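To assess whether the prediction recovers the assembly geometry, we first specified each molecular entity separately, as shown.
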Amino acid sequence: MKKLINSPDSVITDALRGMAAAHPSLNVDVENRVIARADGPRQGKVGLVSGGGSGHEPLHGGYVGYGMLDAAAPGEVYTSPVPDQILAATKAANGGAGVVHIVKNYTGDVLNFRMAAELAEDDDIEVSSVVLNDDAAVEDSTFTAGRRGTGATVVAEKIAGAAAEEGADLATVARVATEVNERSRSFGIALHAGTVPAAGKPGFELGENEVELGVGIHGEPGRERGQMAPVRDLVAYALEAIHADMPVSGDVLVLLNGQGGTPLIELYGAFAEAAAWIEGHGARIVRNLVGNYITSLDQAGFSVTVTSLTDELVRLWDAPVQTPALRWGR
Amino acid sequence: MAFDTATATAWIIRCADEVRAAEARLTALDAAIGDGDHGANLARGLAAAVSSLTDKAPDTPGGVLVAAGRGLVAKTGGASGPLYGSGLRKAGKALGDETDADAAQLGEALHAMQTGIQELGGAAEGDKTMIDALAPAVAAFREAAPDGLAQAARAAAEAAEAGVAATVPLQARKGRASYLGERSIGHEDPGAASTAIILRALAEVTA
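The predicted structure of the complete assembly is given in tokenized form:
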């Protein structure tokens, strides 16, 4: 394993120290692992908190700032944060109007956020939790832990953050986040697994001509192995999986996301194929993001997220945002 | 012998030692069908549980389990922290203020632990989770309780280990392994494996 680190044990601490040094707009508590807006909390504004395992940067800490998250709680690599940490983030985000928790649907995240919400209620902070489960690769049934939260998390955090910033109440902020989740589907394909620093070797091995279809954001293996193919075919496979689950039509937002180890030149190539496929199916990409927004350490590959838009969602997407990883209009 | 404060403390310390010794094995099991962090997480959480016992020095076996459970929830992360942590707290609360619990009382406490974990995690037997080791172990413990603590704990450890082996052919229906569908078949469940370690530790400290 060759990584740009001091030691596997100090990866998160070192990254948080770096975020503190790079972004004076953030209040980074390195010891307790909470990233909050330096200018928050704003009285009367609904707070927006997210968190999860580390290794998905810029998610979530990179989305703390004006128009998006108020605070984030990063756990160990690929491990959910603990309740005390989420509670601290919730308090840092609390302006007295309630706090929305954006939670990705993984057993550990759901359990730790639930415990944190109970602790917050004990402190008279009203918490509304929205669980993201947009991954079309997993069958949602009693036979699984349910669909995973993936790319739509970025979209939900942007749109819910905009609603909170313009003064929407707790129920409304939670509603728009829920709406994004319901109107979004994602699918990921990996070419090479990422390496968890503490593990020292890739999470799974792929042959020279193999890809992992339906891979999750933690390097957990996907549903099946497929053969390596031109980007046109891989993108079509992902979009067909999405389309089979939620027909792609009308005005859509497309997030063409890199998993951390794929260069932007390839992601743009993938976006070109996604745009052609979607246009060919009679839908229209009216908003997009291309780049590394929800990563899996150094995993090579991409995911595509399609969100079916409404006028309200477009307006909230376009609202000003100023965070380390997403900024426009301000 | 009775399950007293010293025995409860020894159990938690033994759990921490044994899980640390098995960390690489648990991580390898988890890497195969999950995300490969179970060994490291549980070792860190149990170390925190041990240090919370040093800080608080509880004076009942129930107090030991509650404090250890809190330490686990506070430091483990992932799913195993809340599940084991809440389970231990439930077990500790079931023991109440008892200073010298007998096998029957510990059996009820372990049953409370199992119920707590199932309520929180929603898993049933056969879902390929820690419950596949815990449920048969608790049943075996209660059945053997009239024979005394040592016998009951040994029966529980053996039942847990048999339960781990029985997870191999199962398809996971809970937790991250469930995303694999049929590809989860043929692997031992890491949560069941760590549960067996915890029950073997109980048998060792009560032998």
